[in-house]
Every structure is written in C-alpha cells, then in structure tokens.
Amino acid sequence: AQSVTQLDSQVPVFEEAPVELRCNYSSSVSVYLFWYVQYPNQGLQLLLKYLSGSTLVKGINGFEAEFNKSQTSFHLRKPSVHISDTAEYFCAVTPRFSGGYNKLIFGAGTRLAVHP
Amino acid sequence: DGGITQSPKYLFRKEGQNVTLSCEQNLNHDAMYWYRQDPGQGLRLIYYSQIVNDFQKGDIAEGYSVSREKKESFPLTVTSAQKNPTAFYLCASTSRREISPLHFGNGTRLTVT
Questions:
Q1: B35-89 tens-digit pLDDT
Q2: N- to C-terminal Cα distance for chain B?
Q3: pLDDT of amino acid B1
C-alpha cells in the first residue's frame, strides 16, 4: 500500500519570496508522483508529474519539483511566488503499471497563503 | 471547450433523503471517478468506472451508488445510508492510456442537515 504525507498543513509566505512545499511518500513498489493545485471552490489542476527520467521536473506557473528516491520525497518549489499562487496544493502517488488512477493516493494538502 | 461539468455547484438536503450529483464529460474519456474531499483529509476515492456499464468500488463506497449507462455520464447517488454525507464531491475523468492526465470538474458542495 502507498501513503503520502504532506509535512505542512499551512505555509504562509510573502509575495516574491521562494517557497517549498514538502511531500514524503511510502511505497513498496515504484510509483508515479504528482502535484495538483486547487483554487477555492474548484476542482484540481495538474501542476506537474514525475514518471521517469530526470528527477527535476518543471510544471506550469513556474513550479518545479524534485524526486528523491533515497529520501522518498517529492518537494514542490517556486523561486518567487505571486498572490495568485494562493491555493491548496496536493501531492499524490500511484503505483506504476496499476492500469489507471483507481489507486491514486492523495496527501492531506498544504494551504499556501501568499501575503503582499 | 471540452471539459467536465458537475451540477449543481451547491446542494442542500435533509437527513434521510437520497440525492444524486451529476457529472458529464465531453472529452471522450473512457474512465471516470468520484472523489470525496473533506478538510485536512485530501481526496478519497468513492467509485470509478473504466468502461460503460461497469464500475468498481473505491476506498469509501459505503452509502453511495453510481451508474454508467453512457460514456459521457457518471452520476453519483448519496443515499440515506451514508452516515456523514456533508462534503465536497469531485468528479474526474481520463483516457485509458497509462498515466494520461486526470481532468477534474469544479465540484459539488453537498450539505445535509
């Protein structure tokens, strides 16, 4: 079975400052990893995903994440945040070759609050 | 524009009543999913369907039912047997290709009093 831990439930940050949202996972098999963003009262949008290859993946809106297999982490970073980045961010994993998203496991979410 | 439409956006019901949440997609996706979102708990899978006329229970299916009579539609019924139905419900879909993107609707917020 897989599990996902997002280490911070809330992250306050000032505009134009860098931010890191932390995600650790547990799995006995190889996994695919994802970050999703959710704006208030909306569905989730895919920010980025790690499937294979380079451990540094770039996503939309200037976000990037680094897969660290030895530490089983997939932290999300942005060098300079905007007010519009205020949202909830979810880390998720699914086993490779599981045949679909029926085994997608989400973390509890991190609420990013960007202040002027 | 292609996408997923969930309706209504807000829904209020009295305890003991069944209620059906609508989910329609025009993305020609084969697979559809229902998730429940509660504060501080992330998303949990209720039911999923990978093909018309077939669906499977997810992690928290008790008190819910679904149907998949058409490729475009995957309605979710919250029955009176669901002990704690107040939540935000999200529908999603994807093609059957391995790890194609998961598209989400904008959700339905159900309040049961």
A1: 999 988 889 999 999 999 999 999 999 999 999 999 999 999 999 888 899 999 9
A2: 36
A3: 63
Question: Quick one: tokens of B71?
Answer: 């490729």
Determine, for residues B101 and A100 on separate chains, whether the beta-carbon distance falls below 8 Å.
no
Interface test with B, best of A21, A47, A104, A105 (most B CBs within 10 A): A104
Strands A23-26 and A3-6: antiparallel
Burial zone of B34 (CB within 10 Å; 0-12 exposed, 13-18 middle, 19+ buried): buried
The amino acid present at B30, given as its one-letter code, is D
Task: Give, in order, the Cα–Cα distances in Å from A78 to each of A54, B29, B70.
Answer: 18, 32, 41
Tokens of B48: 């999923």
Residue type for position B42: G
Answer whether A111 touches B (CB < 8 Å). Answer: no
User: Which sign does the torsion angle of CA A39, A4, A67, A52 carry?
Assistant: negative
